[in-house]
Write a structure and sequence with these properties.
Helix content is 31%, strand content 27%. By secondary structure, it is an alpha/beta fold. Bound molecules: alpha-D-ribofuranose.
Length: 287
């Protein structure tokens, strides 16, 4: 099966800072690294590293050709990444000494996808494939509608959270992944707690506490592995990409979650985003 991921591709500018900047503060960074990122690209790389066949659907500008090449090197099918007349999306990421981050994104090409791109990509899809997306690109609803009509399983990570975007895509979803803050925001918008949402599987991630899965058999907790975090950026994306890959490979949800938790735990011990996502070998070898 294939995972079709309609997702962002960002140039991540990661600043190593002593603490996260306060409003009005000018802060000297200790260093800067540039890497591949974007919630979409991170999830595609994670799912590919977890052994799934992944086709990424997205866009970059001419300044992002290197990012597409890198995704290809990481095993992602990049045939449906368009080059458009807009700058590649980017993210300004501050990471503090405790591994916490603060992220500002500019959508750029991610918000300027060609109108026919999703249709062209999904013409190669088959019923039973998975369609995955997040909230960093244009055309999410049209794409989810098309994927649903074709019999694909639809997964959505509700980040960055926007109540209007999340409620609009909700009727199409089979799997929803969101963090505790996003779950509260969605509950405020819909009046529905995670377990009552009209989605077969809902996973609420709880950071260092683990996650909670709401499925057909009710609610189940998965405590997190204990690690010392140096950078939490992209850990959630790694988790979602690994869950998607596990399900696509036919794993039962508890196994897919357990594997995804191990991948996310390794991820927080590394600096960087897509470029440092662990592969299945690392994950199976353990921490
Ligand atoms: O979740 C982390 C990601 O958020 C970063 O890679 C950044 O590009 C933003 O999309």
């Amino acid at each position: 099966m294939t995972i079709w991921n309609l997702g962002s591709i960002n140039i991540d500018m990661v600043y190593d800072v002593p603490h996260l900047p306060a409003p009005g503060e000018t802060l000297a960074a200790n260093g800067l690294t540039r890497g591949l990122g974007g919630k979409g690209a991170n999830m595609s790389v994670a799912a590919a590293r977890a052994g799934a066949r992944v086709a990424h659907v997205g866009a970059v500008g001419a300044d992002g050709r290197w990012a597409v090449e890198r995704m290809m090197e990481y095993g992602v099918d990049t045939r449906f990444i368009a080059e458009v007349d807009a700058p590649t999306g980017h993210a300004i990421i501050s990471v503090d000494a405790a591994g916490e981050n603060q992220i500002v994104i500019l959508g750029g090409a991610n918000r300027a996808l060609p109108g026919d791109l999703v249709g062209r990509a999904l013409s190669d899809a088959a019923a039973g494939d998975m369609f995955l997306t997040q909230n960093e690109t244009s055309v999410q609803i049209e794409a989810a509608q098309m994927a649903r009509d074709m019999g694909l399983h639809i997964a959505y990570a509700a980040a960055p959270f926007d109540a209007e975007a999340a409620t609009a895509i909700l009727p199409f979803l089979d799997l929803l992944v969101l963090n505790a803050v996003e779950a509260e925001q969605l509950q405020a918008a819909t009046g529905l707690a995670p377990g009552n949402l009209p989605v077969s599987d809902v996973i609420v991630t709880l950071g260092a506490e683990g996650c909670r899965w709401f499925g057909a058999e009710g609610e189940r907790e998965f405590p997190a592995l204990k690690v010392t975090a140096v950078d939490t950026t992209g850990a959630g994306d790694t988790f979602t990409g690994y869950v998607a890959a596990g399900l696509d490979r036919g794993l039962p949800m508890p196994q897919a979650i357990a594997q995804a938790q191990r991948a996310a735990a390794i991820m927080v011990t590394r600096h960087g985003t897509a470029d440092v996502i662990p592969d299945l070998k690392d994950v199976q070898a353990g921490l």
